[in-house]
Design brief:
This protein has 16 helices and eight strands.
Length: about 375
């Protein structure tokens, strides 16, 4: 009986280039037939030399994975040959790491769960799931259900920390999604335990909104500072409009003047949030109305990416040394309503399109310290006066 030839191949379909990574596979050739077994790994051509991954932070772990799969393939081949029943099909079943194996491939399972988890949700939610899955595939350490270990969760966390991502971003954009798929797999009986139960991942939930708002004085500087170009002036105006309406970029993009109603002499806008499908309602304040009139009631919308890039330039001209983005406008508006406007938490929740005041309170509670001091100062005068 002839012995199968086993080798590691890279980018057999010749699709990899400087920007597109190629897949790493194990090829088993036997009696003029070939079978390719996925390693679940892919790298750029420049990172594949002499049959090994080089030049990336995870090179050691990736090479160890390739070696482990090679050993498993060799052991399976020897076992089948000794039993006198070797075929490429039986080898694939025995190795159980084929990319088409629904039973053992965690990534394939996660792709199916995404369709269920995002059904009826906003495009923003769908794209966040898709971005995470794409990142997980490129990372290449978690492919099969057996890869769901404490060690790999810690490696994932360390990899993200090396990119200088903040704890909240690491949890909310990576761990949270992986944990949701793991919980689904447990419910479906595909794995027995959740590694997150034994690992303390810093979620830093309280920091999300605390740093993402401008002071009243900073907002005034943005409103009044001259812009050197018409493009930056439009971006500044969009940011100011966002602030005085507390809208997200998506909701501002969908804004239509035709849907504004006049109630008791005031202009009122109501719609469903693109992200959560929760209804939000607000009255158009004079600064927002002034911008609408300036652009003949049609906002000069540009892409979200360009908008965020230009906002940083606007902030720089206003001498604001903060990483301002479009979401800062929403937080700034809510903070001003709560602190300076004296608007109740319940009303601000309706303006923001939160499902309940509890969510609003959770995000903005610490930002209300200034208001608390003001109100207690008033109370102090009354109390001391009585004494």
């Amino acid at each position: 009986m002839s012995y199968p030839t086993i080798s590691v191949v890279f980018d057999r379909r010749k699709k990899a280039n400087n920007r597109t990574p190629g897949f790493i596979e194990i090829r088993v050739a036997y009696q003029y037939n070939k079978k390719y077994i996925s390693t679940g790994l892919k790298v750029l051509p420049k990172n594949w030399k002499n049959g090994r991954v080089t030049g990336v932070m995870e090179a050691k772990m990736m090479n160890q994975r390739i070696e482990a799969i090679l050993n498993k393939v060799n052991d399976s081949v020897n076992s089948l040959i000794e039993g006198g029943c070797f075929t490429l099909e039986k080898l694939t079943d025995m190795v159980s790491i084929d990319d088409k194996s629904e039973k053992n491939n965690f990534l394939n399972y996660a792709r199916k769960r995404v369709k269920i988890r995002t059904y009826g949700k906003s495009l923003d939610s769908i794209s966040r799931y898709e971005r995470f899955l794409k990142w997980l595939e490129n990372w290449g350490k978690i492919v099969t259900f057996s890869d769901i270990t404490e060690e790999n969760i810690i490696k994932l966390d360390e990899t993200l920390k090396c990119k200088n991502f903040k704890p909240y971003s690491i949890w909310n954009n990576y761990h949270r999604f992986l944990n949701s798929f793991i919980l689904d797999a447990i419910n479906d009986g595909l794995i027995k335990r959740n590694p997150y139960k034994w690992i303390n991942i810093d979620k830093d939930k309280n920091s999300k909104a605390l740093e993402k708002h401008l002071t009243r004085e900073e907002l005034y500087r943005i409103e009044t500072v001259p812009m050197p170009t018409e493009s930056l002036e439009k971006v500044r105006d969009l940011f100011v409009f966002q602030t005085y309406t507390c809208m997200s970029y998506v909701d501002m993009k969908n804004f239509k003047w035709e849907e504004v109603q006049k109630v008791d002499g005031n202009y009122v806008y109501s719609a469903l949030r693109g992200k959560t499908k929760q209804r939000f309602t607000f009255m158009l304040l004079q600064p927002a109305l002034a911008i609408l009139r300036k652009y003949h009631y049609k906002l000069p919308i540009i892409s979200n990416m360009k908008y965020n890039d230009y906002i940083k330039m606007v902030a720089a001209y206003a001498n604001i040394k903060k990483p301002v983005s479009s979401h800062w406008a929403r937080h700034t508006g809510a903070t001003l309503l709560l602190n300076d406007g004296g608007i109740s938490m319940e009303v601000v929740a309706k303006i923001l399109g939160h499902s309940s005041p509890t969510m609003t309170r959770k995000i903005y509670a610490k930002l209300l310290d200034e208001t608390i001091v003001k109100e207690m100062s008033k109370a102090s005068v009354c109390i001391v006066g009585r004494n």
